[in-house]
Amino acid sequence: MKRHLISAADLSRDDAVLILDTAEEMGRVADRPIKKLPTLRGRTVVNLFFEDSTRTRISFEAAAKRLSADVINFSAKGSSVSKGESLKDTALTLEAMGADAVVIRHHDSGAPHRLATSGWIGGSVVNAGDGTHEHPTQALLDAFTLRRRLGDGPGTDLAGRRVTIVGDILHSRVARSNVHLLSTLGAEVTLVAPPTLVPVRTEQWPCEVSYDLDAQLAKSDAVMMLRVQRERMNAAYFPTEREYARRYGLNGQRMARMPEHSVVMHPGPMNRGMEITAEVADSPRCTAVEQVTNGVSIRMAVLYLLLSGAEPAVTDTSENPAAAPAAAPGPATRTEENA
Amino acid sequence: MDSSSEGAAGVPVDGSAAVPTPPARPVLEAPDIARVLTRIAHEIVERAKGADDVVLLGVPTRGVHLAQRLAAKLQEITGHPVPVGSLDITMYRDDLRMRPARALARTEIPGDGIEGRLVVLVDDVLFSGRTIRAALDALGDIGRPRAVQLAVLVDRGHRELPIRADYVGKNLPTSLRETVRVRLTEEDGRDGVLLGQRATAPTAEQ
């Protein structure tokens, strides 16, 4: 694994499968009487949130705490950011406090990349969602949920599975990360959205694009519904909400046309009545709640793989600890038996 | 973990042992391993007075296979099935920060748990004792056994912690220059314990 997790596109198939398999073991900790591991004792994880979040922030916090890391929560509201402090100065402050990892959510695309490559901080950077760019841990937990629900065990990828992602692709970092990750894992991804909500250049993405939801339903192993992100919309992308719901919303009738085994996914927060009806959201085929549970396991796996090992000697984004054993202080010629 | 290939204080020997300078010498062959496990199974039954509340937990990778073999032998002797599982100690290791992050192995606790039971930890090689220290920590987070015992196929000495085995397949006095490699059919295609020479001399202060 690389030292930072900025984009799902940075992950190779083996990296991704390793994270999913690690998450599988992390998930078992939740079944124990003592839901805590000593692994990251003495490490500090900073949750740097410039944008509102419920799920992702508490999920990262729970993950870090279950691994015994110290957690510092930082939200832009009520901090010096509201007095005009720049990302750089905030980063330097965190570095001075000795953060081993910074989990960052930012309203601007590219902020985590800047943080990772600028040399402002020495720790690992984990992208927890940046603007309309990427949200890699969400894609990982979606892939994890999918692999579990479709009955594929540890060590396997999603080869041959068909995933349809429906809705506001244009503003969705979840869709971008999922397209990269799911295709890396061998799944066939189809994006379905009104033409106005399909980003330019999707023909270069490893996926298909369709404007017709009904045509995709019968052949999908999973249908992922995305929230229409009103807060990012500065123009009229579709005539009315009713028309959107009628053409691109998932209701009981549409769900009935999906194959028996297929699942409905939603990264949350849901707009019931808009992209998904209450009937679908509350059906056992909808994995929204499961996705939240799995989110903790995935984030534990990511933090574990980024932080538990040797400190890399060079603080460079291209640094790959696994490929550069010389970075380890101890003799590191040993072949990783389980790696 | 793979303590067979593990040096004291986490000294890596696996990679160097793959290119042994003098050929590795077998110290236990397949029939010896079978005999030794049968003896350990009888010892467990004797000391646990019937092995009614015994739970076997193997330390991945090879300890798990040994635990399963022991469980089969215990069932032969006592006539009732003995719960067997695995206990991954990776996240409890004291040398995590000395190497790149490691993949995790499976922890599988048998259905009835370990609460109030006699847990017998099973590993292939007992060396520094650090793996067992980690296993005891891991066990503490899972439950409170009545007692914990340790069974190992080979005890090669050089302990760095006050830990000893209750059941030892073979005591194998070694020097730190030597490597002990356990091979099991389930993992490596055939059974055997090999004593080899480390290709390079151990660096200072092992």
TrEMBL record, chain A:
GO terms for cellular component: cytosol. GO terms for molecular function: amino acid binding; aspartate carbamoyltransferase activity. Pathway: Pyrimidine metabolism; UMP biosynthesis via de novo pathway; (S)-dihydroorotate from bicarbonate: step 2/3. GO terms for biological process: 'de novo' pyrimidine nucleobase biosynthetic process; 'de novo' UMP biosynthetic process; amino acid metabolic process. Residues 160-306 form the Aspartate/ornithine carbamoyltransferase Asp/Orn-binding domain. It is an enzyme of class 2 (transferase). The keyword Transmembrane helix does not apply. Its EC number is 2.1.3.2. It catalyses: carbamoyl phosphate + L-aspartate = N-carbamoyl-L-aspartate + phosphate + H(+). Residues 315-339 are annotated as: Disordered. L-aspartate binds at residues 83, 173, 227. Residues 321-332 have a biased composition (Low complexity). Residues 3-147 form the Aspartate/ornithine carbamoyltransferase carbamoyl-P binding domain. Carbamoyl phosphate binds at residues 55-56, 105, 135, 138, 268-269. Keywords: Pyrimidine biosynthesis, Transferase. Heterododecamer (2C3:3R2) of six catalytic PyrB chains organized as two trimers (C3), and six regulatory PyrI chains organized as three dimers (R2). Catalyzes the condensation of carbamoyl phosphate and aspartate to form carbamoyl aspartate and inorganic phosphate, the committed step in the de novo pyrimidine nucleotide biosynthesis pathway. NCBIfam families: asp_carb_tr, PRK00856.1. Belongs to the aspartate/ornithine carbamoyltransferase superfamily. ATCase family. This is Aspartate carbamoyltransferase. It comes from Streptomyces tardus.
